[in-house]
Amino acid sequence: MASRIFGSGIKRREDPRLITGKGKFTGDIMLPHMLHMVVVRSPYAHATIKHIDVTAAAAVEGVVAVYTNADMTLANIPCAWLIPNSNLKLVPHPPLAKEKVRYVGDGVAIVLAESRDIAQDAADLVRVDYEALTAVVNPEEASMDGAPLLHVEAPNNIAFRWIASSGDAGVEKAFAEADVVVKERIVQQRLQPSSMETRAAVAQWDSGNEEMTLWVSSQNPHIARFVVSGVAGLPEHKLRVIAPEVGGGFGAKLPIYPDEVLTVWAARKLDRPVKWVESRSENYTVTTHGRDHIEYVEIAATKEGKVTALRGKVYAGMGGYLSTAAPGIPTIAHGLMYSGVYTIPNLRCESIGVFTTTTPVDAYRGAGRPEATFLVERLMDKLADKLGMDPVVLRRKNLIPPFANGYTVAMGITYDSGNYEGALAKALGIADYDQLRKEQAEARTKGRYIGIGVTTYAELCGFGPSAVAGATGFQGGLWESAIVRVSPVGKVQVLIGASPHGQGEETTFAQIISDELGFPVKDIDVIHGDTSRTPMGWGTYGSRTTAVGGAALVLAARKIKEKARAMAAHLLEAAVEDIDYDDGKFFVKGSPDKFKTIQDATLMATLAWNLPPGMEPGMEASQFYDPPNFTYPFGAHIAVVEIDPDTGKVDLKRYIAVDDCGPQINPVIVKGQVHGGLAQGIGQALCEGAVYDDNGQLLTGAMTDYAIPRADMFPQFEIDHTVTPSPHHPIGVKGIGEAGTIASTPTIYNAVIDALKPFGIESINMPLTAPRVWAAIQEARANHAIGGR
Amino acid sequence: MKVSITVNGKLYVRDIEPRMLLVNFIREELGLTGTNVGCDTSQCGACTVHMDGRAIKSCTCFAVQADGRQVTTIEGMASGDTLHPMQEAFWEKHGLQCGFCTPGMIMATTAYLKDHPNPTEAEIRHALDGNFCRCTGYQNIVAAVKTAAEKVGA
To answer: DSSP for A4-38?
Structure first.
């Protein structure tokens, strides 16, 4: 092909409808005779429900029904990651609270009315008699004796205790014999994912055929079908779940919530379409949060800077109930990554999941891996400081050497491929690191506080082999599927099980097909997000859509190619092994002028007038793909910050990101994913954080109070990459959705602490807002009388 | 209450509840669902439309306040098949991912460029303060606005 479509930054095919307002999100769906549902939610973080009186609400004109838990027989909302060997407590989570509420926002009743305004008015008239109980919002405190108990099934509020270790004896010995041990208490603050579109659901019951259609703002419609059918008692084949345009998810549209189940239940009960759209304040109190760890971590090393061990104890807040994937995040997706990109022989992670009277926690961009990367990178910097060593020098002493086909870390997982020094060297080159250090030293002499943060990271992505899912208690598979269908006139329909929602796979998957089969991109349509149209898939999260779904697609395309080759050979009256292929054309070796196109072969295979012996008619291929391993993208990030000592304001001057996700299908889209990931990771470092008061009230319950990063916080990100293919993926790709988030939080944090080194400040809890940094500077000045001025 | 509001050049006369927000009038009465609601509190800007040529947040404006006025929504930006230069620029510069904030971004930035035809990058970033995007990290949105400014200026 003259110019290869693979690797080309073509414009996205999703965009024309989105820039003209024609994209249809769930909230845009309006059906005739549709009712609107509003959920009455608990204003208390922890309370006993004494009595619910719906009389006044039900009497409002336009209200069709008001229901409480007593009116329904729905199953509990399940948790789906049952991590083994952890004494996991599966506590009941009814779609509407029964005797107790366990966080502000816990649903207690639903109101169905002719308009949303009427439903909201009536919801305010539902009288709930609560007896308030004591709240507890800090996971470490919640696990202590005497803390208020959320669930009788879980003493001390402990949901699970999980340990991963390379060998406890070795870890103990390494710490006992270490020249240097550095410790840190890290608060991974709670984050509110804040997709711009809140969640929404519309359910339509076809009573004649006993079929339900559910439109839902979801990252994984097939899992939603699976779970909602179970909870609502609908046969799975009679439930069609459609994820139309989805306005961002970031992990929070992965869980299955009570709201969509209730929408489905009410639509069937009332035999009318029902719509539920979350308000933003509901989104902040009800849609799952991310992170929420309190960690005690330490690292052991020789005086030469060789790291010998790393261990951590994590208190991970779960919120009031166990959300869909919650137990797997501070454990499997976190503890197994304690090695980072380093040759650390002894590792141990103890993770304690704790119920608190707060919004349930689940996946948020990176989910477990940002927390792991943060603690490893934070400890590396603190260790470098203690040893009086440049943090880059320390990292280089410990980096895993380049490998192309498997490296097993002490935690027992095998990274697929990596060249960490390659990415680091490139990032240092772009930043001109040595020069930066000189400028920093000079600035310090003038009372300016410049800091440099460097992170080298690897992430566990492309979730993942289904056997690992089973072994780690994930109640699902982790394969993907694709169907490639070529129509008689040579147009291609691609049906995928994955469910992208902004990541651009309608474009990149068309590029894959175009590259494999020679069809122009305009002739390829990629369909996703509808359980009745597409084959089964396990959803879009864990940077897995291209890594797993893309592999299924490549293999399906190759089946098409082989069938077309056989058909072309038959038409050219040649043996299959004598046929060559180039850019959509098949020809007898050495005679490229006499060819049959893939379109010719498709037409003749579809007409089936004269097929080779044994060939089925048609041109369609289906592929299920279960990857043999995860993928492990990696990279090196560098941040330069300057801190105003008088205000504490952190000014991000430069941000350099060198990421390696293997070959890039569309580098413009890859960069876009990195930009977005960086903004979220930098947001965690500098401004974002859910805040609860002691009564369990969320103080950051609206966008007035939760600090979403704005455009003027960021410089132009300097983005580059290296290319290290995954050895086990058919086209070597690894995934890029989470990289920016995973690497940027520690990079910024380390840069800020580096800038504050003259004050002797070693840690400040995130987010590093101006008041917090200012207070730390004031305290340091008071304590040490240093830092001048 | 009876209102007469011109939306995308077409006059609509409707009898509405006084408490109806302009965004709900646009979305529910007229079925123009390109304008989105992202926050309910006028921070995010997803609901931005033009009223008499100026960008406003339609979630913080009653429909009755638009009585007798000219409103333009994202659906009114292209002329037939020809995209507005800002729409073109967002497409060309990969200024959107999930696309939910995009209509509001396009409406806010087109109004901004009318008053500030040659903004610097810092000015564009500052001007985007009232519009949140959670997907793009803003870099390509800034690039799109710059590109549109150049196109319009050229």
So the answer is: -STT--PPPSSHHHHHTT---BGGG---TT-EEEE
